[in-house]
Amino acid sequence: MLGAVGLCFPVALMLCAAESTDQASGRHKAELGVESVVVTLIEQIEVPAQESGVITRIYPREGQYVKKGDPLAQINDRQAQLALQRAQVELANANKQAGNRIAVHYAEKSKEVADAELRRATDSLERYPKSISETEIDRLRLSAQKAALAVEQATFEFELAQFATQLRQADVDLATDSVERRRVVAPLDGVVVQMNRREGEWVEASKPLFRILRLDRLRAEGFVQAMDAKEDLVGNAVVLSVTLPGGRAEQYPGEIVFVSPEISPVNGQMRVWAEVENPRLELRPGVRGTLRITLAGEGTKP
After folding, report:
1. Are 93 and 139 members of one domain?
2. pTM for the full predicted model
């Protein structure tokens, strides 16, 4: 230990332990310094076409920053749009039929009339025997039964109309999905670094159209000596120090997200990853720097 700060020798891929004094509180804070850290991507993606067709429009340019959900390309969707319009018309027709209870009401009224006629006939027959023939009574009973069955049939057809509405709604959903699948959108925030097709060209389904890199959060990878990593480092705060193109020194805060369970039998080192914030998108993959891991004191595990 030399003064208030431990002496660290900047040897590539070696870890040095240091202790610094918190000026405000006087507490000691242990740190691990990781040399020759490499900045890499956390996430990159090749955005495919979901349907085959002619590209009618390309929205971004190479190097343009896009947000999740932003349009990237439009594939010809004329037939899909027509199919959607037809499905919507059929759904509207099904909704009309599903809301039409006229047949049910008519059947119910017919049953009421048939029941009333049968009731009057049986009452008259009880008061005045032989005033109505058995044949007439049988006919009225048949009419009442027929009216009851007509109510059941009308109700059954009304319920079928409800199911038909659900079927037509499914057709609309499928047609809508077909339209949306011809609209290519950004699956994440990032920078478009590659475009494989241009407007007017044909694209096959599943073929990549764009490559997008996420730059607002990057990974810093390095190695620590296993004998010095005496505690679980995951979640510990870090500061990444780099020299940007042009010679400007910058620092980026973050935290450890991964510590490899494997120890190299050659040098006794373990691989660690930290994720750091890059809100101004100045830090780029491939840059090398140093990482300072806080082990104790305030801010150890944010």
Report:
1. yes
2. 0.69
